Amino acid sequence: MWHDKDIVASKCQDTSPAFPGDPMYPYVGKYIAHLTLAQLKTLDCSRRQHDYPMQLTYPGTRISTLKEVFDFAACADPSHQILWNIESKIDALYPNRTLGVEDFVHKQQALFAYSPYHKSITYQSFDWRTLLGMKALDPTIVISALIDDETAMMPDNSTSPWLAGLRLDQFAGLSIPVEIAHAAHWLGSDILSPVAESLASPSPDPAMTGYIPFTTKDMVDEAHNLGMTVKPFTVNRLNVVEQLLSWKVDGIITDYPSVVRRWAKQQGLPAAPKYPKQRVLACMDKHTQ
Prior knowledge:
Elements: E1 13-14, H1 37-40, E2 43-44, H2 66-76, E3 84-87, H3 101-113, E4 121-125, H4 128-137, E5 142-147, H5 149-152, H6 176-187, E6 191-194, H7 217-225, E7 229-230, H8 238-246, H9 257-266, H10 277-287
Parallel strand pairs: 3-4, 4-5, 5-6, 6-7
Antiparallel strand pairs: 1-2
């Protein structure tokens, strides 16, 4: 929901009066874990983000609970065909900024279990401790190991707090990408979900000089050899989409699903169905009052 992961970002506005004597007000800029649901529900999050100039906004948009999201989706999707990718937004470097592993896993799993979408959920996280915790609670949940430059290794070569105590160099491999595939497999992950572009890349597109991918063909091949699927994120350029698809990745995570969906249909690839516009709008009216 927010790039910041942990805080109520500036796309939200404090538009409602604070609770009398509330020392946490204003709420924008505060850590979500430190606010109550009642406090969060006072925020209007309909401001257009600067990085998304074409974003449609809906005045009065409030932060939804996961149950509210499930209820809205089930209204628009009565046959329950939607596939879900749900992340635990937890910060392994700063545990005081988010709820802990046990809180996330137990509360999310309880909601999953009573949802009509229980069998359609993929649970993903950069903090691999939550993936182990979720599998222990519910072995039927598909888990997806997120990883990027910042979580794979620490600058001082110490053990990364994100990888549930694993070190990439404990896995025999010809390269770091191959070691990443082995680490995710050891974890028991069904899906490896690496960032597409390395933070070290001086250019954002494989058609440009100097592009450095984080997801490599070797990583994809090794993950497939180990029985995992590979779904890179966040893929916002069609040249990157085409490169990854040429390496046989199994899915794409993007900020522009409509564009990638159109591209997939143009290529004759399968794409998720659309839902009737009027039904979706009617469900939105029903579930946002």
